[in-house]
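Input (Syntaxin 9):
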Amino acid sequence: MVKDRLHELQEKRSSLPHNKTKNRAEEPSQKYRFLEQASELQDVIEEIRTHVADVAKIQKDILASPQQNSELDRRLQALAKVIREKALHVRATLKTFEDMSEKSPLLGSVQDRVKSTQHASLSRQLVALMNEYNKSQLEYRDKCKSRIRTQLAIAGSTLSEEEIEDMLEKKNPEIFTQAIMASTEAAKRSLCDIEARHADIIRLEKGVEELRDLFTTLALTVDQQGELIDRIEFQVSKTTESLGNANRCLNSAVVNQSKTRKRKFICIIILIILAVFLIVAIASAIGLT
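Output:
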């Protein structure tokens, strides 16, 4: 007797396509989730860019102020902390993207290339922005050192250039207080400003070192991906140009087609009028005969 295996076959049939359908459904979901996360990272990078510009403005105001301004110092420290936290968040998320891409079953597919391109583009933007930020921080450090030398002269310091440079390299913010006896109010104000600027130098040097160590690996990755991104951007540019040419050709064809239809319509009207005149002329000739 033949065994009825219909139920068994139905179970296998229902299970296999279900898994395939599930995998197909998950792929678009993963793609959209990635694009959404990439868009969020782009927004964070733009926020960092705005904060970097704000830092530069506050630093300019600090250097232009005749004496130490606690409020500006507080805002500067708060912004530096926000920039660091957001930059680290972007860096960590990009690292997650990189790890997911390496483990992806779609490695080498179009979707995988899109992810790699997006990751490289965001990485390049972040590295360029943080390099710009670090450069501005080092410039501010040099200006703070110059400001300290000026304030030391106002405070009546007799320290040599070598002694001043040696003190600037030390991490003790009270080192200038120990070296200078401020007897007048002007000298005391100068000393407060000196200590504040020295504290700025200590903080920003620490911050620059931390960010440099954290972004060295990312910068190397960006350098390796640079040629790939340049090629992709070139192809995108050429594709956009080709699309533009195609649209112009299409618009021209539509215009020409419209003109042709108009000419045909006019020709038909003329033929109809000529036919009417011909009929009338023939009818008149018959009537006369």
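The CA atoms of residues 88 and 111 lie 26 Å apart.
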